[in-house]
Amino acid sequence: MSGERGLRIVRLANFVTPSSGGLRTALAELGRGYLAAGHEPVLVVPGDGESDRVTDQGRVITLPGPEIPGTGGYRVLAGRRRLREVLDELAPDRLEVSDRTTLRWTGEWARRRRIPSVMVSHETADGVLRTWGLSEAVAARTADRLNRRSAWTYSQIVCTTEWAEREFVRIGARNIVRAPLGVDLRRCRPARRSMRLRARYAAGADVLLLLCSRLSVEKRPGTALDALAALRERGLRASLVVAGDGPLKGSLVRRGRAERLPVEFLGHLPDREAVADLQAAADVCLAPGPAETFGLSALEALACGTPVVVSASSALPEVVGDAGVAAADTAEDFAGGVLDVLSRPEGARREAARARAELFDWQRSVNAFLAAHEALPVAGRASEPGGR
Q1: Which residue range is the domain that position 156 belongs to?
Q2: What is the pLDDT of residues 122-150, one digit of tens each?
Q3: Which CATH number does the domain housing residue 230 bear?
Q4: Deepest in the core among 82, 97, 272, 339, taking most CB within 10 A?
Q5: What's this model's pTM, rounded to 2 decimal places?
Q6: H or E stretch at 125
């Protein structure tokens, strides 16, 4: 690619809703970055109706897609005929797919038309299968079959961490590209920390914990309540704020009331500024999802100066480094992780969190994704950091 003209990069994604988190954020930041580089991003997502809008991340087309029961509103692009018509009309120069299940056929569609295609691995197949109850052996065998097909169908497989690469390395795939995600270092900053806001949510407790997560099975939000209960049993006066929504919210709220745990459920917060204020106000953020391949919420917390305790089963230990603690997926281990973080001097732990986050930015991510697409910035167009 000479960089003389922009490419039409058509991006397909499922499981994106107005209340979804990391994937929605990543799509928006990458879209803005592609635009800044002089390309033409077009995002196609499912919704309850059909629409076609021009936004700051490029053109966004919504196609009707059914809700998946029990997911809290997630939809999929199930109308294969209509999606194929849209793809034919768009005539993409590049195809980028952020789904590993129902949209895998689009890789073959692109292959037959000699259109370079990228599949983005936002989660590991075996990790998700394990969270849904499959044994490790069965999950690995099933994932290997799916991943072999994906690696053959798509030109490139983009993984955000070395951890996410492992299941493709295991099957001998050679078309893997590493492209880390980023964080908005201007919006998420330590200066947002408000002791008044902290006192409001701590409600007299000595330690304020925060969980920013979709409340669904694969995210394991119950571990945060487990850790809170274990900490209080150890004599630590801690409280928990949960920002997020999902199919498990009702059961978690009932559990909190039944066990008289000091936990407040805020639901989905559409205001990203308000989320950043919460992340800065907390003493420790929790990220218990065992199948996370990157963890944008945890990285945002670090950028706000707040250390995190993360699942040792996920990719997050690779992302957070020594700015957090990796804990086994049990109440006692997560509680121990919180105590470990709190044993460090407050100033030092918050400085370390911010320093770690500064290793990641959206411009680096945009550059890596464009490299996967073999899409240079258009001549005369200077890329600007997405979300900065």
Answers
A1: 8-182+361-372
A2: 777 776 677 667 787 887 888 888 889 88
A3: 3.40.50.2000
A4: 97
A5: 0.88
A6: helix 125-131
